[in-house]
Amino acid sequence: MSSHGRPPTDDRRPTLGPEALDAFADAFGGEILLPSDAGYDDARRIWNGMIDKRPAVIARCSGTADVVAAVRFARERDLPLAVRGGGHNVAGTAVCDDGLVVDLSGMDGVFVDPDARRVRAQGGATLGDVDRETLLFGLATALGVVSETGIAGLTLNGGVGHLRRKYGLSLDNLVSVELVTADGSVVTASESANPDLFWAIRGGGGNFGVVTAFEYELHEVGPEVFGLFVWHRGDDARAVLDAFRDYAADASRDGSVVPFYATVPELDEFPEEARGESAVVFLGCYDGPAEDAEAEFETLRTVVDPLVDFSGVMAYTALQSMLDEDYPDGLRYYWKASYVTELTDDVVDLVIRYGRESPSTLSTVDVWHLGGAISDVAPEETAFWHRDAPFMVTFEANWEDPETDDANVAWARNGLAELREMDVAAGAYGNFPGFGEDPARTLFGENYERLVEVKREYDPENVFRLNQNVAPKPATGDVR
Fold this sequence. Notes:
- The chain is an alpha+beta fold.
- Helix content is 27%, strand content 22%.
- It is built from 14 helices and 20 strands.
- It has helices at residues 18-26, 40-44, 64-76, 127-134, 151-156, 164-167, 195-201, 237-249, 290-302, 316-321, 345-357, 405-420, 440-444, 448-458; strands spanning 31-33, 57-60, 81-84, 100-103, 110-113, 118-122, 139-140, 174-180, 186-190, 210-217, 219-220, 224-233, 255-263, 278-286, 308-309, 312-315, 332-340, 364-369, 391-399, 425-426.
- The strands form 4 sheets. Strands 12, 13, 14, 15, 16, 17, 18, 19 and 20 form a 9-stranded antiparallel beta sheet that branches. The chain has a 5-stranded antiparallel beta sheet with strand order 5-6-10-8-9. The chain has a 4-stranded mixed beta sheet with strand order 1-2-4-3.
- The protein is globular.
- The two termini are 39 Å apart.
């Protein structure tokens, strides 16, 4: 297997005696899985089939008390500690070799207060879990675009979804969190309780603890929205993307659109002669009257004669799950991204060229339209720094054959490297980090030093380090 999926380990493995494990299991309400147990191999697998790691212990938590016990057990024995939420983890940091995995997948409860327009969701919940409950009341919060995505990683690193231009990032909709810190304490973080920690977790990823519950603000959405999903031929890519640039210049905040360069799938819904050919696709959402959506998206749908147009009024939950089958468990994934201050001709050319040259027909090059409510928040108001960029370009390498790992990873890395040579490109996105090659400063910009201070307060020993790590620094005069 390619070394991208599993870094080499040495022989300095922690020794876990049976007495320590028995004591841990006795105090644990969920399920403890060891390498010798039935079900261990299934439990260590995550969505990205490229990841093949073997934890020493998998702690399937039933509640917050189990999370506390697992964190303390790992810290006291200096075990590498990984946190698995919904398991839709592209970077592979939800599991680790020779350490302990805090598995929250069984903690997926969702509780809606429609009068207060709030939802509280446990750390193992997915977007689909949340939407299913909130849409009963015609309410939703700003989450992602694939219903099987876990809310935890998505939110802590940003969260770009179908409502992003109207309601901001997922983290912008957080009201509070319940979090287990490195010493096993359970704390609430909000604007009024531990506000420094609340600032840090909104964009700082999993650096500061295990979030066992998220509380979000809800908005009136749907239950039906206008979904944009139109496919144009790859030969028309330049005209189609030029139309998108013109649209984006004065787009309504009610609409959020992402064009992506793709390959027409071998499905009956597409003309037989076009299957396997390149395409540029518009995926989007309009949260407002259907007639306004028709006017908003008209140019994107008619700039050329489309290959096929699936657009129309649909349930918001249907739009949220539309891409689920395109991202199945076990496929191999490697994603990289950069923010872009302008869609110049050079950027558009790069998107088209890399889209055409992808070694896999499952891969895409995406151009996320940002701005709107995202840029209403000043960069220093949360740990998420990159607020001002109107676009994000993503190289999504998705493929099946392990023998082509190197070619697909190189395609994404090379595309990003070329993009970053342009003056309009900057930064990185925590949810599309490749395998974490970019320094944390690339993600956090000028917020980095403040994050270090919060890290020193809540995790001075860097227990939570299997992420885009903000390493704590000793205070002046400390001896380490």
